[in-house]
Write a structure and sequence with these properties.
Layout: H1 13-19, H2 36-49, H3 54-57, H4 67-74, H5 83-90, H6 93-105, H7 107-117, H8 121-132, E1 141-142, H9 143-152, H10 157-173, E2 182-183, H11 196-202, H12 218-231, H13 247-253, H14 257-270, H15 285-288, E3 304-305
Antiparallel strand pairs: 1-2
Length: 306
């Protein structure tokens, strides 16, 4: 199966919501002035004042600016595919087959998660497949370095300084090490691509080992994704197709309507059409012929995951 980097089209799920939250209190480190090393030095003092211990602060030792991150941030492009084009490509036979296999493989875990959070396994697995091809395309860049670079850049410095604080909190708490926190250029973590702020708020320990690991632990990934949806209004036992109660929760995962509809349609295919009206049935065709989506930027949009 050809792997597709969906982040070329839209920011991950949980990342979307995290970046559209109201700004948190201003941070003092000055972006873009002086050297990157001086900025990190000031940021360390501020992070320490906010309770980050030596373990978290050590992740910033020797860190350097990543020009590839700045270049990627500046070349974001407009998402212009229709629902038919995007879903037709992304809900491929191979991805659908693998999703059904994984639903069977993790059936007991998904059942337990649905009992706890009310989110069906088909919806969680659809997000998992679309975000990273079930964990096979998580990204290889250092999350801490990426977020620190974006914090230094002045376009959205305050937002990414807050993301950097949360990245250090994850390390400080012992959930993941800096070396384990690998992702794409905007700082998304793990198999369903949570920004650090979403990780701190919504990640859960699904396997009971005392850590929240969204890179290696499938139970943590699946439970955290369900917790995110529940926290954004998911209603147990209700449908998720456009016009049904839970579609709004999917839109909180990713505000790009084409992407949200693709999640809903993929989940319906995985579920065999039993639990929700299919998003691609003839009765829905008129609503699916959408105009090109508004620009969806990693840093400002409305993910997600993200």
């Amino acid at each position: 199966m050809t792997k597709v980097n969906l982040r070329h089209f839209t920011l991950s799920a949980a990342a979307l919501a995290a970046l559209t939250l109201a700004a948190t209190p201003a941070l003092a480190a000055t972006c873009g002035k002086g050297t990157f090393a001086a900025f990190i030095g000031d940021f360390k003092k501020e992070a320490s004042a906010k309770g980050i211990s030596k373990r978290g602060l050590a992740a910033l030792d020797g860190i350097t600016l990543d020009d590839k991150v700045l270049a990627a941030d500046k070349r974001q492009h407009v998402f212009k595919q229709s629902f038919e084009q995007f879903s037709g490509r992304m809900i491929s036979p191979s991805r659908l087959s693998k999703g059904k296999s994984l639903m069977a493989q993790h059936g007991a875990t998904l059942k337990r998660i649905e009992q706890q959070y009310g989110v069906p396994g088909a919806v969680i697995v659809a997000i998992w497949g679309l975000e990273t091809d079930y964990g096979s395309n998580q990204g290889k860049m250092s999350v801490v370095r990426s977020v620190a670079t974006l914090a230094y850049d002045c376009r959205r410095s305050e937002r990414f300084q807050n993301e950097l604080i949360d990245a250090l909190r994850i390390i400080d708490k012992g959930d993941m090490t800096s070396a384990e926190m690998r992702g794409d250029w905007a700082g998304e973590i793990g198999q369903t691509q949570f920004l650090p702020s979403s990780f701190v708020k919504y990640a859960v320990d699904g396997d009971g080992n005392g850590r929240r690991d969204l890179v290696h632990s499938v139970p943590d990934v699946l439970a955290s994704t369900a917790n995110y949806l529940k926290s954004h209004g998911w209603q147990r036992g209700q449908g998720w197709a456009p016009g049904q109660p839970n579609f709004s929760a999917i839109q909180q995962w990713n505000k790009a309507e084409v992407y949200a509809k693709t999640i809903a349609a993929f989940a319906d295919r995985l579920d065999g059409g039993k639990s929700a009206k299919s998003a691609d049935k003839p009765a829905d065709k008129a609503s699916q012929k959408l105009a090109p989506d508004k620009r969806v930027e990693r840093s400002t949009q409305g993910r997600t995951r993200r």
